[in-house]
Design brief:
four-stranded antiparallel β-sheet; alpha+beta
């Protein structure tokens, strides 16, 4: 196995109110403004279009959130870290209200700012999926429930690459 990519999907419950409704209103308001000769309506249409475009990434499916390879791990929103900088990988749990969800805890040999290198996926926008949580003890917890693959598939891939078989 040369590498493994795990994807995440956005919560589609807000897509209508953040993308499709503003875009539809922008079209109607913009055309009304042009036909009626009211420039104010065209400005409102431009603002609604901006809102829709700002949340356009919500329409994307299967966004790569976690990549494992022989070189290391790339976490969307954080960057890449080499396997030699990861000191431990353990099973964990994320508690959301009364529900416990599967997770993986990553420990590092050095402080987090020193082990991660920036990649194209480092920049995380506020509306994008975050599969990680920075913990106060210097570890990172990866929430496996947000990934499309099963938690056991992700754990199996971590075991494979951590064992040095790659």
């Amino acid at each position: 196995m040369s590498g493994r990519t795990f994807t995440a999907d956005y919560d589609k419950t807000n897509i209508a109110t953040r993308v499709w409704i503003p875009l539809g209103l922008a079209a109607v308001t913009g055309m009304t403004g042009l036909l009626a000769g009211v420039p104010g309506l065209s400005i409102i249409a431009a603002i609604l279009t901006f809102v829709a475009l700002r949340f356009w990434p919500l329409t994307r499916f299967d966004r790569p959130a976690l990549k494992l390879s022989e070189d290391g791990v790339e976490i969307d929103g954080l960057g890449a870290v080499r396997w030699r900088d990861i000191s431990d990988v353990r099973d964990g749990m994320v508690q959301v209200k009364a529900v416990k969800l599967p997770a993986i805890d990553l420990s590092f040999a050095r402080p987090i700012p020193d082990v991660f290198s920036a990649t194209a996926a480092t920049r995380l926008r506020p509306w994008e999926i975050r599969i990680f949580r920075l913990r106060r003890d210097g570890k990172i917890r990866l929430d496996l429930s947000k990934l499309e693959d099963t938690p056991e598939d992700v754990r199996s891939a971590f075991r494979y690459f951590m064992s040095g078989n790659a």
